[in-house]
Amino acid sequence: MNLVIIKYNAGNIRSVNNALLRLGYEAEITADPEKIMKADKVIFPGVGEASTTMDYLRKTELDKLIVDLKQPVLGVCLGMQLMCSHSEEGDADCLNIFDEKVVKFPLPNPNPQNIKIPHMGWNQIYDVKSDLFDPSLEGEYVYFVHSYYVAKGADTAATTDYILPYSSALQKDNFFATQFHPEKSGPVGERILKNFLKL
What we know:
By secondary structure, this protein is an alpha/beta fold. The chain has a single domain (about 5-195), classed as Class I glutamine amidotransferase (GATase) domain (Rossmann fold, 3-Layer(aba) Sandwich). It is built from six helices and 13 strands. The strands form three sheets. Strands 2-1-3-4-13-12-11 form a seven-stranded mixed beta sheet. It has a four-stranded mixed beta sheet with strand order 6-5-7-10, covered by helices on one side. Strands 8-9 form a two-stranded antiparallel ribbon. The chain is globular and about 50 Å long.
């Protein structure tokens, strides 16, 4: 399988690559448009800030390339948020693959449970759908680190509760995305990555 991880100015690329290696898959980390377009599967990871990252994607024209991809594409964390239409983080217009806005979690006021932002740690996914998941993943725990979220909508592929129910995964056509980090989610995350690689 010709597997590519998009190289750009956002972190977490190495940990995604290491997770794939543990599963027995070797990916090429590249920003080469031709290699990305020819890949069987593409992973678009990310840890960083939305507006500066979108500026970089536009400068390198990776923004146009990603939107035009026809093979299965998996966005992770910031990668998922950048696939949406707009992010409050830096007031950034994004790739508009998913017609959804990315907004900051509202802290409850009063806050008797001392809820914190970012949402960091293990939490459940439920109402799972799309080929990224199988029924056995319903209610499983995965690992999150994020301050911004996507509301539930037409493309929601999994839901998680933190302050409010939100989209912890999205899917539309050949584009799949997770707000959580499958590469940091142990055996459950490995099963989700395997499901993507089998598409």
